[in-house]
Amino acid sequence: MKVAFHSLGCKVNSYETDAMRQSLLHAGYEDADFAPGADVYVINTCTVTNVADRKSRQMLHKAKEMNPDAVVVAAGCYVQDASDRLIADPAVDIIVGNHEKSRLSEILDEYFRNREGSRKKAVSNINRMREYDELHFVPDGEHTRAFIKVQDGCNQFCSYCMIPYVRGRVRSRRPGEVMREIRTLIDRGYQEFVLTGIHISSYGLDFDFPGQNKQTPYASEARTNRHLQGLIQDVAAIQGVMRLRLGSLEPGIITGEFASALADIPEFCPSFHLSMQSGCDATLARMKRKYNTADFMEKCDILRAHFRNPSITTDIITGFPGETEEEFAQTVEFVRRVGFARTHIFKFSVRRGTAAERMPGQNTEKTKAARSAVLLDIDRERRVDYARSFIGETVSVLFEERTMADGKSVLTGYTREYVPVLMETEEDLMNRILDVVAVSVTARGEIIASQAE
After folding, report:
1. What is the pLDDT of residue 387?
2. How far apart are CA 325 and CA 7, in angstroms?
3. Which of 2, 157, 184, 232 is 20–30 Å from 28 (CA)?
4. Alpha carbon distance 371, 112 (integer Å)
């Protein structure tokens, strides 16, 4: 049978989609494009915003339209939030929760044995799950960078977020499983690895407090996460790991001790994504974030004291309930003061069932869009400024693919700071790490490079 997949949302979802695809291929299914002709369509859904909900529904209905006789599987976060609605949707045949993704082949087998026109529901109470659901994915080696999921769940309950409700409590992958997957990927030619998860700052918290819904201390206290630090050190020590990165971090995990330990690891890449959401203390308090702007700035200062010109990136939500023009102005001023290498901007989206849904002072879509535009302009300016800071320097680049730029064939890759690089050359440098000289910068913030002599 032919199976087609479509993934929405984050890198964790992408990893899990690839793992589900691989499990079905091992079970005898044939991989197919997300186009007419497949026998099974699996949509790994997202529910981080109302737009994500709508896109999830659209893709489920699109799948059924492409083949009305096919089996359509809804999986993932939107399923956890809307299982009753989906089980009543005639476009959906099977719904699979986040903790059941590893059993997709078994669930499909059971459905085909007992089809009889009935729908199949496999959704557990994610908030009762205490064990990490092992989903293994070994890529085919066509790429240079591999994402390694090491953690799931979140204990933070920020006022705007559905993630704790659809991903459950913190659950961490055992280090031995992480090492085993990475060694397999090294054998397939991968050199760079990104440790990712839903809330990796909480990695290992469940090892210390098994079975508890305890809120992670790392989000609010200056405290080194020794579990994560140890995992990073162990992964970097594996022969063949040339580069190592981290996914999004909570500011509270950044301490002098933690930064010093990472700076001592030659393989560690100094690109840090610190989740901020707002540059206004009053807004942060309504969001139920566990820090203020002074705390955040202190963490940036720590990183810049331990790394030379590190990349610090962030997320910002515009138009949060109650955000006034004055509060937004504080965010703009703070963003300029921090000097982010990149900023990801999101317009606030009301999530049903969250505290933010009931807050007064809901901003209009027009206001959210206008504020987003202001921050996007700053982001474009800062990307270029940060890339320019490397002009004249020798930078290390892992080349990943060949593409066309301004009518020329160029190789593209990323520096250790995750700045995109373009270099005109006919040499085959794919999956090679090479020192190059930063010559100039494009209007998009890409470094134009030449080979170092």
Report:
1. 98
2. 36
3. 184
4. 50
Q: Report the distance separating Cα 17 and Cα 337, nearest Å.
A: 39
Q: Which of 135, 146, 194, 198 is nearest to 171 (CA)?
A: 198
Residue among 209, 245, 213 nearest 227 (CA): 209
The DSSP output letter for 117 is T
Task: Specify the CATH class of 145-388 in words.
Answer: alpha beta
Which one-letter amino acid corresponds to residue 268?
A: F
Contacts of 220 by beta carbon, 8 Å cutoff, 6+ apart: 252, 290, 291
User: How many helices, marked H, and strands, marked E, lie in the chain?
Assistant: 13, 18
Q: 234: which 2 tokens?
A: 């162990």
Cα–chain center distance at 226: 22
pTM for the full model?
0.89
Q: Is 320 exposed, middle or buried (0-12, 13-18, 19+ CB in 10 A)?
A: buried
User: Contact 150/350 with Cβ under 8 angstroms?
Assistant: no
Q: What is the sign, positive or negative, of the torsion defined by CA atoms of 347, 295, 415, 444?
A: positive
Mean pLDDT, 10 residues at a time, the chain of 453 residues: 94 91 94 96 92 93 95 93 88 90 90 70 59 68 85 92 90 94 92 95 86 66 84 97 96 95 98 97 97 97 98 98 98 98 95 91 97 98 98 96 87 97 92 96 96 81
Where does 394-451 sit in CATH, by number? Answer: 2.40.50
Helices (H), 169-313: 175-187, 205-208, 226-236, 256-263, 281-287, 293-306
Pairing mode, strands 408-415 and 394-405 = antiparallel
Q: CA-CA distance, 198 to 271, in Å (whole number)?
A: 18
Kind of pairing between the strands at 447-451 and 433-441: antiparallel
Domain ranges of the chain: 2-124, 145-388, 394-451
CATH number of 2-124: 3.40.50.12160
- Apex 189 CA angle, 186 and 192, nearest 5: 70
How does DSSP assign 404-442, residue by residue?
EETTEEEEEEEETT--EEEEE--S--TT-EEEEEEEEE-
Residues 415 and 8: their CA atoms lie apart, in Å, by 27
